[in-house]
Amino acid sequence: MFLEVKNITKKFDDTDVLKGIDFNLEKGQVLSIIGSSGSGKTTLLRCLNFLETPDTGTIFVDGDCIFNAGDTHKKSFEEIRENRLSFGLVFQSFNLFPQYSVMENLMLAPKLRVKEKVKKEKLPKAELKKMYEEIHAKALDILASVGLSEKVDAYPCQLSGGQQQRVSIARALMLDPDILFFDEPTSALDPEITGEVLKVIKSLAARNMTMIIVTHEMNFAREVSDKIVFMDAGVVAAEGTPKEIFESENERLHHFLASFNNAQ
Amino acid sequence: MSFIDITLELLAGFGYTLALFFLTLVLAIPLGMLIAFCRMSNCKPVQNITKIFIWIIRGIPLMLLIFMIYYLPGLLGVTNVFHNVDIYFTSLLKSNEVVKIGSFIAVLIAFVINYACYFAEIFRGGIESIPHGQYEAGEVLGLTKTQIFTKIVLKQVVKRILPPMTNEIITLVKDTALANAIAIPEIIITAKDFAARQAIIWPLFYTAVFYLIFVGLVTIILGKAENKLSYFKA
């Protein structure tokens, strides 16, 4: 198993938001997490990305333990930072850096990273310039792959929501994450432009990017996922292939999917 | 006295104003940042002490604060340090008039503390207004906390606080007149002296021109800075 999540729990004040979440994911697979608002989907995603610290549980990536709530030693921001790099996260509200152009948004983190490396390993200055050029070339490639080559120098405020979200996907891809997470990537978008973002995610799936997607787009989840997890009241209420989920007899799941069909 | 003589004398007075203005700005901004960070500290005692400090400083009229700082060493049983510095420099420079360096330092201390507190609250407002998502985006991209602040948050904060800072800085220009509380020969005192000693009234009105020109310059410069940051929305 590439990703193994075991017994994740999380409490906010007196509310149990996650009550013991377990799931696995193979490399190259796409997992969608569905469920109604308040079922704990986003909290789970935030726990996996270290934006929240789970109260219990473990997370293994490729056999390495990257989180263990039982550790007596509390991990520092620096140690978490290292583990973070195997994950990328695309936010519902994009969170692009408004003062930077599209290119600068993409290059900021990788540039800081190589700068740190050059300083640490005392490499010559010329090396740094070469690395910056490589990062720049890579950014152009990635922007082309999300269809935004002509927006290289635009600022986030000049882009539509769909374009901003595609930039934020490109930004996450710049660090070559092992797993890319999406937190309701189309929920802040107008219905007519969700398609362009979903198309990009599909193209990533076609290239065997390992992804975990929290979404309300049922048709999309059915189409793109290898596996779907249905969360309800802080537990995994059902999991399986899209076919298994959408044809499930599970009552809560049935109820949830029916409410979606009625709404559409 | 000719127009030029009077202009020169007023300009000499305005020199104190400019010196006080620039020194206050240069010193109060870093001190204000420090106070803002203490105010936002996770450590409750630090936070509370800072809150009380800001309350006291903002609650005392600046003029009173100037007197308090000027007389504090005397009250504590030390001699009036600031006055002694005045006397020392006067004799050192063999000047006929009192050289008010000590008094000026007292005024400067009062100004820096006073403005640092106001700036601190503006900085805090700016920093706290930045959406949490900006920090989280930096975190998931593997930036350090320092990098998140300097590379992501700072410029957005500067953009947001420029209008209130412009206000505060203009007030600072005019507040410099309070230096005359302990007889610093700033421009208004100089103009008043013309009225009192020589019955020439118009320099008092003329003084307003100096302030207006300087405030105009400050407004233009800070307006330019605002324009420079208008290319993005935050």
Protein described:
The complex is a heterodimer of chains A (264) and B (234). Chain A has 264 residues and is an alpha/beta fold. In chain A, 42% of the residues lie in helices and 24% in strands. In chain A, strands 6-7-8-3-9-10 form a 6-stranded mixed sheet, with helices on both faces. A 4-stranded antiparallel sheet of chain A has the order 2-1-4-5, with helices on one face. In chain A, a hairpin with a 2-residue loop joins strand 4 (56-61) and strand 5 (64-68). In chain A, helix 3 runs parallel beside helix 5 (161-173). Chain B has one domain (3-232): MetI-like fold. In chain B, helix 5 (101-128) packs across helix 7. Chain B is an all-alpha fold and 234 residues long. The radius of gyration of chain B is 21 Å and the shape is globular. Classes of the chains: A alpha/beta (264), B mainly alpha (234). At the A-B interface, helix 2, strand 6 and helix 3 of A face helix 6 and helix 7 of B.
